[in-house]
Structures are given as structure tokens and as C-alpha cells.
Design brief:
four-stranded antiparallel sheet, repeat, WD repeat, 15% helix, Coronin, alpha+beta, 495 residues, Methylamine Dehydrogenase, Chain H, six-stranded mixed sheet
């Protein structure tokens, strides 16, 4: 077969050779025959103007109720939120979430409330939105809370996996901020750990650590509450193109990146000894960033390259070669982005183990990954208990130092989203109130109103006010420290 020197054809040939080489290792695994299938056209979401902004995020977030997609918007930033059943052609006049003044770069559904979504934008803010139970009938312009603290665009938002109302954001100011969304406060600001752009941030299983991949080619493991770097690896991948790093359920770290020769690589690391990788595989010479999607229940990693038309998937085990190639789902159209459904949103009766929402230029196409089984009975080996929608900790408990694993649920009888799953009213929880505006006074007064309604006694009011005062004083103190730091930096530059 002649490929006539075309670089894309050569890349395609290398992909075939790589896939073939990996396939030769025959190994017993219940996931060996997993296959992907795109749904029929009438089950896609059509006529969507997917965002053209140059940013390597997935542009799509999914949960058992809704699919959210970042779209092109004139004069600001917007994203669509569609109920899962709202397939077919989406009218141009369909309402959007459009409160940002600059393009939206990242979105993330709250794991503990399927109606709450966070967004990060070029306008340097993070906004948190409460979506009506049946979806939008009018465009949503007023967020529940605006989180202001970054000095440059915010490209990453990620909810804590087990603590309620804890949200992480990372910006092009190379800072990571961890917020208590229930009070609108920035409680942790990691602004001196990264010297270059942060490509991605991943929480570990219980949310006690984060790992980051950065433009300086380092992967860092950080304890955010102690504000210290626990481990780091220089030149994780030697190529100049963007990397990704994610935590696995056992505490190891999986990375994707590029070699010095611009070949795409994947690697597995033990954060307790990052001198050498546990495994390192070179794949092909495509130049799209590999976005990893991880299922902790099956230990399968799906790799979706931006601009690729395939999804490769691997099983991670504790036997050499540790990262085992399973198969590739291939299609004709390149992907602009990808959403990944949480396990509780899958159809267990059809042995569905993953569902992707592939973004094309003008549509969103669900892709279903299935394990072929003859029996119609519940396959408990495919569906161990999985993370449920209940938070294991309150925000305050986590900030005080407590850790907890996700609270698990069984999928034996399927998962039915609860009807009234608004956040429980806790002191200083503003997500259950009417949307607040940008003003700081709104952020302060909303929690007080919530407390007043739940406990009208005067002593409770006094206690709440005192707490509020202390919180404001702490914030001012933190800002003073930050100003002092910046002034010192300016003085050094002046000298």
C-alpha cells in the first residue's frame, strides 16, 4: 500500500501498526471485547455551534439529567444546557447560560447536585449556576454566585469529588484557587507553585491531593490544605506540546504528552517514586492533545485526541505491562471536544460501561461503549458499587482537614435521579437561595438570610453575624498578605 508521503496518511499507517502491535498481546480480560457504537442520527443533538475558542478543554460536560456544551456566542460567553432527551435539531433561539462577558473555556457539573454547574471564562471569573429541574425555558444570565479572584482567564474548573460545595479553579495567572461555593469565599490560594501555564488539574479519589500538569513539563502532586508540593517530576514528557495528568483510584498518576520527536506518549507513575515511570508507551505522531477520561470502577482509561476521529481505550492493572491496550473506536469525523457520562447515568441493562458525547463542528453525537454479554441479568462484575450523588463531607469539614472516600451506591436496579435534589440548607449555603448578583454585599447577605429563615432566634443571628465578621476579617488579612507579596515582587523588579 502506498501512502504517497502524505503526513496524515503516514500518521494513519503508524496508528494501524501501533494498534496491531498492541493487539498481539492476548490477555484474559472481561473488557477485551468492549466495542463502541455511535447512536442513530435522530438521537444526536443537531445544529449546535460548538465553540471555536482555542483552548484544550473538553467543551462538554454531562450528568444523568443534562448535557452542557460550550457554544459560540457574540459579545460574551455562553453554553447550552440540554435535557438528555432533547435530541434532534436544536433551534437557534434555544436559551443558553450566558452571564460571562468573555468566552467560556471550561464547565463542570457538581457531582453532588445534578442541577448545579460551574463555568470558567476569559473574563477572569468563575460562575456557579443552578439549572431548573426541567431545563431552561429562558436564557440564564444571573449566576447563583460569581467567584472573583483570578487576574487572568480561568481555563479550568473542577469540583471536589467528596466534599459538598468545594470548587477548584485554575487560571492563566498560574494560580489555583479553592472556593467554598456555599459562602462565595476563596479559602485556599496556591499562587506561587506554578511558574508557567497550568494545563490541567485532577483531584485524587478522596480529594486530599491534587496533581497538575504544566507548560514547564512538570507534574506536581500538591496537598492543597497544607499548601505544599508533595512530589514532582521534571520533564514528565520531553516534548513541547501540552500534557495531561490524572489520578487513578489506587493513587498512581496517568499522564499523556509528547516525546522530543513529537510522538504522542502515555505513561504511568507512582507519586512516591517518580524517578522512572511504571510504564511508558509511544503511540503515534498526531499533534492533537490526548484528553484522558478515567473510569475508577473498571480501571479503564479512554483517550480522546482533540482533532482525532478515534477513541482508544486501555485497562490499567498491576501486572506488566500495566497499561493494556483494549481497542479503538474509529469514525470518520474529527472530534472538537468530548463529554463523559458518570457511571450512574448509564444503562446497566444493556451492559453499557461508558457513554461519550462527541462534539462535531455542528452537532453532539453520543457514543456508547458496551461489553457484549448474552444474559439479560444484572452483571455485577461490570458494575461494582459506584460513587453516588451524596457528599461524604461538608465543605467546612474538608477545609478543617477531614478526608472521606466517595459514598457508593449500587446500580443493580438502575439509577433514578431524585426529583428534589436541591442542596440542603446549611449555614452560609447560598446555592439554595435566589441567584445573587456580582456584588460582594450580595455574597455576604445571602448566607445570612438563609440562616435567618432556618433559625429566627436572636442568639443564632448574633452567632452568624460574628462568624461573618471573622470570615471578612480573614479575607482582608489574606488580601493584605497578597498585596505585600506583590509589592515585594514589584520592588525586586524595580531594583
Amino acid at each position: 500500500m502506498q501512502y504517497g508521503g502524505s503526513s496524515s496518511a503516514l500518521s494513519s499507517l503508524r496508528e494501524e501498526v501501533w494498534d496491531d502491535t498492541m493487539r498481539r498481546v492476548v490477555r484474559q480480560s472481561k473488557f477485551r471485547h468492549v466495542f463502541g457504537q455511535a447512536v442513530k442520527n435522530d438521537q444526536c443533538y443537531d445544529d449546535i455551534r460548538v465553540s471555536r475558542v482555542t483552548w484544550d478543554s473538553s467543551f462538554c460536560a454531562v450528568n444523568p439529567r443534562f448535557v452542557a456544551i460550550i457554544v459560540d456566542a457574540s459579545g460574551g460567553g455562553a453554553f447550552l444546557v440540554l435535557p438528555l432527551h432533547k435530541t434532534g435539531r436544536i433551534d437557534k433561539s434555544y436559551p443558553t447560560v450566558c452571564g460571562h462577558t468573555g468566552p467560556v473555556l471550561d464547565i463542570d457539573w457538581c457531582p453532588h447536585n445534578d442541577q448545579v454547574i460551574a463555568s470558567g471564562s476569559e473574563d477572569c471569573t468563575v460562575m456557579v449556576w443552578q439549572i431548573p429541574e426541567n431545563g431552561l425555558t429562558l436564557s440564564l444570565t444571573e449566576p447563583v454566585v460569581v467567584l472573583e479572584g483570578h487576574s487572568k482567564r480561568v481555563g479550568i474548573v473542577a469540583w471536589h469529588p467528596t466534599a459538598r460545595n468545594v470548587l477548584l479553579s485554575a487560571g492563566c495567572d498560574n494560580a489555583i484557587i479553592i472556593w467554598n461555593v456555599g459562602t462565595g469565599e476563596a479559602l485556599i490560594n496556591l499562587d506561587d507553585m506554578h511558574v508557567d501555564m497550568i494545563y490541567n488539574v485532577s483531584w485524587n479519589r478522596n480529594g486530599s491531593l491534587i496533581c497538575t500538569a504544566s507548560k514547564d513539563k512538570k507534574v506536581r502532586v500538591i496537598d492543597p490544605r497544607k499548601q505544599e508540593i508533595v512530589a514532582e517530576k521534571e520533564k514528565t514528557h520531553e516534548g513541547a506540546r501540552p500534557m495531561r495528568a490524572i489520578f487513578l483510584a489506587d493513587g498512581n498518576i496517568f499522564t499523556t504528552g509528547f516525546s522530543r520527536m513529537s510522538e504522542r506518549q502515555l505513561a504511568l507513575w507512582n507519586p512516591k517514586n517518580m524517578e522512572e515511570p511504571i510504564a511508558l508507551h509511544e503511540m503515534d505522531t498526531s499533534n492533537g492533545v490526548l484528553l484522558p477520561f478515567y473510569d475508577p470502577d473498571t480501571n479503564i482509561i479512554y483517550l480522546c485526541g482533540k482533532g482525532d476521529s478515534s477513541i482508544r481505550y486501555f485497562e490499567i492493572t498491576d501486572e506488566s505491562p500495566y497499561v493494556h491496550y483494549l481497542n479503538t473506536f474509529s469514525s470518520k469525523e474529527p472530534q472538537r471536544g468530548m463529554g463523559f457520562m458518570p457511571k450512574r447515568g448509564l444503562d446497566v441493562n444493556k451492559c453499557e460501561i461508558a457513554r461519550f458525547f462527541k462534539l462535531h463542528e455542528r452537532k453532539c453525537e453520543p457514543i456508547i461503549m458496551t461489553v457484549p454479554r448474552k444474559s439479560d441479568l444484572f452483571q455485577d462484575d461490570l458494575y461494582p458499587d459506584t460513587a453516588g450523588p451524596e457528599a461524604a463531607l461538608e465543605a467546612e469539614e474538608w477545609f478543617e482537614g477531614k478526608n472521606a472516600d466517595p459514598l457508593l451506591i449500587s446500580l443493580k436496579h438502575g439509577y433514578i435521579p431524585g426529583k428534589n435534589r436541591d442542596l440542603k440548607v446549611v449555614k452560609k449555603n447560598i446555592l439554595d437561595n435566589k441567584p445573587a448578583g456580582n456584588k460582594k454585599s450580595d455574597l455576604i447577605s445571602a448566607p445570612k438570610k438563609a440562616a435567618d429563615a432556618s433559625n429566627p432566634q436572636n442568639d443564632a443571628k448574633l452567632e452568624e453575624i460574628l462568624k461573618e465578621l471573622k470570615s471578612i476579617k480573614d479575607t482582608i488579612s489574606n488580601q493584605d498578605e497578597r498585596i505585600a507579596k506583590l509589592e515585594q515582587q514589584m520592588a525586586k523588579i524595580g531594583d
